[in-house]
Amino acid sequence: MKRNLHTKLSLIMILTILLLVVVISAFLIRGVETFYIEEFYTQMQAFFGDPEIVRELRSAQSTDARTDYALLNERLSIYSGRLGIVYGIRHFYVLDGETGIFLAGSETPEEGAFRITPNVLTALGGTPGNSYSRWFGYMDVALPITTADDNTYIIQILDTKQTAADLSSSLFAIILRTAVIGLALSVLLSFVLSKTMVIPIQNLTRAAERVAAGDFSRHLGTPARDEIGDLARTFDNMAGQLKETVAQLEQAATLQKEFVANVSHELRTPLTSIRSYAETLLAAGSNLPESTRQDLLQVVMGESDRMTRIVQDLLTLSQLDGQRRSLPMESFSFQTAVESAVRAVALTAKEKNVVLDMAFPAQLPRMAGYRPGVEQIVLNIITNAVKYTPSGGRVALTAYTDGTHMTLEVQDNGIGIPAEDLSRIFDRFYRVEKGRSREMGGTGLGLAIAREMARRAGGDITIDSAIGCGTTVTITLPLEEPYAS
Fold first, then answer.
1. Which residues, at least 6 apart from 377, have a Cβ–Cβ distance to it below 8 Å?
2. Higher pLDDT, 46 or 306
3. Nearest Cα to Cα of residue 32 among 169, 133, 158
4. CATH number of 227-301
5. CATH number of the 323-478 domain
6. What is residue 128's three-state secondary structure?
7. Angle at which helices 334-352 and 371-387 pack, to 10 degrees?
8. pTM score, two decimals?
């Protein structure tokens, strides 16, 4: 992975530099050539556009010693500087005005090397020739001049473009040397850059492999503030969430195993009792006294009722766990709902000689919610309070509101709950004194059902208790928020 990324970065940078070299070279060389050509024609236009120079050239007249075209040649030689004449690169020629034959010039062309250009042909027709084509390896101008002897000649200024070629070659060499240095630097830079990118990616890969293997202990902790740093921090957050999720799943699996074991145990106990008493009834037949038979049947009925309560509570929890739809809401009096729950448990309290006290303000606001759920919550809590309060005890109910929530405190002076059991008191099938709770008919699901209902309603249930000092259960429910589905 490291080598591949390094190679890719190196190739990208090398290709980028090569592309830049090609583009820059093309633009610069084209620019140099264009400048040189424009400068040539501008220079020629300025020279032959000067009336004094043209007049001087046309005034050439033959003498006994020299011809008029020889005088033209001499006068053009005087202006070699202005014409930019350079030996071997830029020349001027004096040609015959009718045939275009070379007569004189700054240099004598080699035999067979002289050629009549399109501009010379144009000048032979009597019109100045100054056309140019990039396909030609030269540039020239040709101007017809009639001397004082009434002889017509063609003055041709021809440039081989060698200066432009030499300048372009030098420029290309400089660009090429710069490109070589740039390529070396790009390879080095790509190596350094790939290191800064590859190392965090490799660390991220190893961290992902550890997470896949179930190891969530190590974090990348990169200080980088770029995209890779953001990715590493996101990965750390994801790993932390996965760790929490796995822990929750493991805890859920453990609770599920405990739940299945508890359900099996809770159902096996009454089934064992029912089977034992049924076998006794069958074995004894008609020899069993009627009073004993009735006692055994009462036990069987009691165990059957306990199984029914367990199954009913399990169905209630199942409905709460799987519930996804909204429950029907209604506006109702909280005090009326509490009184309904109190009436349901009043007979049991009277039989145990437990006093039920209610202390409500003169006016409690109405609340909106799922009334059967609220009544079930209150009933489960009051039932527990009466069940674990000894004869002659007292269960006090106090209600109040802060304007947004309704609070009901159920306080008893019963046996209390040990501090070490308070953290698990809402767990399903959890009992402080398993044998005693079972004898009292408890399933270990009442508190779990009550708190689940309260939390789904947007409220909660808390317990404050101590051994020998009684227990206070506080139910808090929202006044206006709908029952959560």
1. 450, 453, 454, 457, 461, 475, 477
2. 46
3. 169
4. 1.10.287.130
5. 3.30.565.10
6. coil
7. 30
8. 0.44
